[in-house]
Amino acid sequence: MKEQIDIKDIIKNKNLEIKFEPVASVIKQSIIGFQASSNGCTIGGKQISMCKLLELAKSEDMTIELDRLYREKAVESFSKIYYENREMLLFLNISASIITRFIGSGIIMELINAFKLNPQNVVLEIVEDKIEDVESIKKFINFYRSHGFIVSLSDIGYGLANLDKISYVEPDIIKISGAITNNIDLDYYKQEVFKALVNLSKNIGALVIGDGIETKEEALTVMELGADMIEGRFFGLSTINEEFVYRVREKLKSLSIEYKTYMIYKTNLEKSRYRLYENIINEVLRELSNSSENEFDSKLKRVIDRCDVFECIYVLDENGIQVTDTFTYCKNMISQKALIFYPAKQGTDHSLKKYYYFLRNMALNKYVTEPYVSLATGNLCITISSVFKNIDGREYILCIDFNPKYIDL
């Protein structure tokens, strides 16, 4: 109970347990650093959570003291392996509310100097959703960055948390939240969100850490999607010592081998997918090439009836005008979707669509789009467009939409 736990006594006796989570690069096959966190303390054999300690500290107006104790214990523990591993980074959580209340104290710098750590080995990770005093945050970041510290933003992708901070924090490292990486190997939409955040990070010159990684499959997927580093319970959570470092390195070696095998498999899978596309398209093109325009609809209907990997199939003339109906196996869309998404009709102008104007303007015979939301079905799709001539010698463009989620190889 609250009255049995003396937060002042806990802070005075520095009774706080620190655990470390590895941050690793699979490509480099190396441990980049360790994220320091506290899981609370033990009193009389009973574990007191960090959340409880924070609650007690707030009630006694000792939040800053508890926060400083966390950093002191983290730096002290990390220093035990730092001198033999000077390339490693220490990731320290910094609460935004603490920054705004105590900016300019210089206590972090004093702490790092006291344990003879190089500031370039310390990553200050800005946490907390709400930041009210933006100017104080900027001053804090500019001061510590000028002394060599690295700045990171955590929980990117968790709701709208921290997306607005990117512009003024200008982070060196971005951590994509476990809310995105959890089961990412099974979720196409999470994969697309992750890729978008990676692209954002690259455009502003920030490295990407896939956070919250708990399984091998999640690790392999985020690496494939562009993460520079990974962090999470997959590598373990422990007090820091050389034995723990050794175990992490061994697991990292094994993961690196798995990643190489995985990428070979994915490359072969991609080749198989495009061979499938190629075979299907060539089969359809053969039928259409031996037909007149007024036979196209009947040919496409037979194709869609026997080939359910298509979202939609239709034909354009050389000017991008649709000369057939749109044939699709998506027959029963919910009414709300049907008001927004519906197949294009004969006579629709597609001349501003990428699958038309890139094909024509770049003098290509075939074009494959990036995944996008189909206006015909509301599903994710890719469109493959291909030029052909019919039996009368007139030029047309066959367009086939595939849903990348449901292609069964």
From TrEMBL:
Which chain regions cross the lipid bilayer?
Answer: 89-112
PROSITE patterns according to UniProt: EAL (PS50883)
Q: Which CDD domains match?
A: EAL (cd01948), PDC1_HK_sensor (cd18773)
User: What keywords sit in the KW lines?
Assistant: Membrane, Transmembrane, Transmembrane helix
Cite the Pfam families for this sequence: EAL
Q: Where is the EAL domain?
A: 1-252
* Domain of life (superkingdom): Bacteria
Example of a GO MF term? cyclic-guanylate-specific phosphodiesterase activity
- InterPro entries from the xrefs? Cyclic-di-GMP_PDE-like, EAL_dom, EAL_sf, Sensor-like_sf
**Identification of the protein by name:** Putative EAL-domain containing protein YkuI
The species is Clostridium colicanis DSM 13634
The lineage is: Bacteria, Bacillati, Bacillota, Clostridia, Eubacteriales
